[in-house]
Amino acid sequence: MTQTNDYYADGAIASSYSKENSTVNKLKYQSKEFQDDLGINLYNFHRRQYDPWTQVTTTIDPHSDRYFNYSRYSFVLDNPVSFTDATGKDVQFDITRNKKGRLLV
């Protein structure tokens, strides 16, 4: 193990540890590249850039008309624990249940 990261639920880095003289892993929250060049501090979600501290993206969601109750810049309907947004367009419910209906972790 050369690097350990702890995150808040929205993807902001709470604490980070890396071994001295080791290559830094840029893939962080949800296995997305964390861009810290020039202090930008955004995640590259391919179609959109995500700021974990403000919990919004830097561009408008192309399908924002489907989610009129939320900001056009919101990410995963402001609930990164239950939803994912793989394409940058539509959210997907990301909780699975077993045959008895209990949540799987």
Task: Describe this structure as you would to a colleague.
The chain is an all-beta fold. The protein has one domain (3-93). Helix content is 0%, strand content 27%. The strands form three sheets. It has a four-stranded antiparallel sheet with strand order 3-4-5-6, with no helix packed on it. A two-stranded antiparallel sheet has the order 1-2. Strands 7-8 form a two-stranded antiparallel sheet. A hairpin with a 2-residue loop joins strand 4 and strand 5 (48-51). The chain is flat. The two termini are 24 Å apart. The model has no long low-confidence stretch (mean pLDDT 80).
Question: How would you briefly describe this protein structure?
Answer:
It is built from no helices and 8 strands. The protein has strands at residues 3-7, 13-18, 33-35, 42-45, 48-51, 56-57, 83-84, 92-93. The strands form 3 sheets. Strands 3-4-5-6 form a 4-stranded antiparallel β-sheet, with no helix packed on it.
How many domains make up the coordinates? 1
Point out poorly predicted stretches. none
Q: Which outline best applies?
A: flat
Distance between the termini: 24 Å
pLDDT averaged residue by residue: 80
Structural class: mainly beta
Report the strand count: 8
Query: What percent of residues adopt helix (DSSP H or I)?
Result: under 10%
- As laid out across the biggest beta sheet, the strand order is 3-4-5-6
Proportion of β residues? 25-35%
Secondary-structure element pattern, one letter each: EEEEEEEE
Quickly count the helices: 0
Tell me about the biggest sheet?
Answer: 4 strands, antiparallel
